Amino acid sequence: MATILDGKAHADRMLEAVRQGVEARLASGLRAPALAVVLVGDDPASHVYVRNKSAACAKVGVTSLEHRLPADTPQAELDALIDRLNTDPAVDGILVQLPLPKGLDSKEALHRISPAKDVDGFHPMNQGLLLEGLPGLRPCTPSACMSLLAHHGVALKGLRAVVLGRSEIVGKPMALMLLEQHATVTIAHSRTKDLPAVCREADLLVAAVGRPGLVEGSWIKPGAVVVDVGINRVEDPDLAARIFACEPKKLETFQAKGAVLCGDVRFGEAMQVASAVTPVPGGVGPLTIAGLLTNTLMAADQSK
Ligand code: NDP
């Protein structure tokens, strides 16, 4: 059986490091780092994410400044708020919660955030720094995955890594960070031919696709390390029966609740083939917020 890579435990370690960093700032007479979160509209999942972010801020002593705007906010008003936050010396990090309601351009909003306060690491300037291998604010999810792999002593040099997914948020930056650590990286996506065969080459498989249970046990090289970034809600009983065939407990939960969260990887099958696997929930999910607060501290320290 594979080892479970416990994301929650590692997130706690990362948050403790942030808490200590905040304490050190306060001890030297600096203020606590401040994160401004902009939430537009009433997407229920976004409200949950923002609540979780505020709770994590409170835990480590980061000031959380929430800006809630109605769903029909015009782009100019959102832009004006971002401009104000960019020049506000009491704000270190700015996060615009995605997705934005219809009619708002998320790229325009994200590109407007000052690169020095871009704690999500989505600004082209920060993406360019990552491409060049220079320090900057890096996307939270892949950074935190790298931190998890380092903590567990996964030696990346020379490793065959396959990243499933090529989004700007996860897939592409994850591939660049692995490359920086001297892994040999393949990026696969929806047009990749013979995906199972590509995955079977991987000593390290990172799945960031958003398709429940896409990666079967037979796609995984024996002994591989598997990082499952996907967070998917399964409501279809036939799909649940297929992807949880090796996870009777999960199937029971599904039958009791009518829906469950799962990753892009069939966890029960992966556990029988891989050497280490991140679970969903409890794997990469908690790490992302820890990555965000790590970036917020970094942004504050850099602006001093
Ligand atoms: P996107 O939808 O932006 O990207 C998905 C990628 O997967 C695309 O590159 C797409 O290919 C590829 N893809 C889709 N279907 C297939 C398929 N059948 N076979 C191969 N590749 C496929 O998603 P994100 O990167 O934003 O997120 C991916 C997953 O990670 C989601 O489940 C999301 O919820 C989760 N997530 C979790 C986070 C966490 O904190 N744990 C944080 C961020 C995301 P193509 O480019 O060709 O369309």
From TrEMBL:
EC number, UniProt record: 1.5.1.5, 3.5.4.9
Pfam families in the record: THF_DHG_CYH, THF_DHG_CYH_C
Boundaries of every Tetrahydrofolate dehydrogenase/cyclohydrolase NAD(P)-binding domain copy: 139-302
Family matches, as InterPro entries: Aminoacid_DH-like_N_sf (IPR046346), NAD(P)-bd_dom_sf (IPR036291), THF_DH/CycHdrlase (IPR000672), THF_DH/CycHdrlase_cat_dom (IPR020630), THF_DH/CycHdrlase_NAD-bd_dom (IPR020631)
Keywords: Amino-acid biosynthesis, Histidine biosynthesis, Hydrolase, Methionine biosynthesis, Multifunctional enzyme, NADP, One-carbon metabolism, Oxidoreductase, Purine biosynthesis
Pathway(s) where this gene product acts: One-carbon metabolism; tetrahydrofolate interconversion
Catalytic activity: (6R)-5,10-methylene-5,6,7,8-tetrahydrofolate + NADP(+) = (6R)-5,10-methenyltetrahydrofolate + NADPH; (6R)-5,10-methenyltetrahydrofolate + H2O = (6R)-10-formyltetrahydrofolate + H(+)
Domain of life: Bacteria
Entry binding sites for NADP(+): G165, R166, S167, I231
Domain Tetrahydrofolate dehydrogenase/cyclohydrolase catalytic: 5-120
Free-text function comment from the UniProt entry: Catalyzes the oxidation of 5,10-methylenetetrahydrofolate to 5,10-methenyltetrahydrofolate and then the hydrolysis of 5,10-methenyltetrahydrofolate to 10-formyltetrahydrofolate.
Family: Belongs to the tetrahydrofolate dehydrogenase/cyclohydrolase family.
Subunit structure: Homodimer.
Protein name from the UniProt record: Bifunctional protein FolD
Species name: Geothrix edaphica
Name of encoding gene: folD
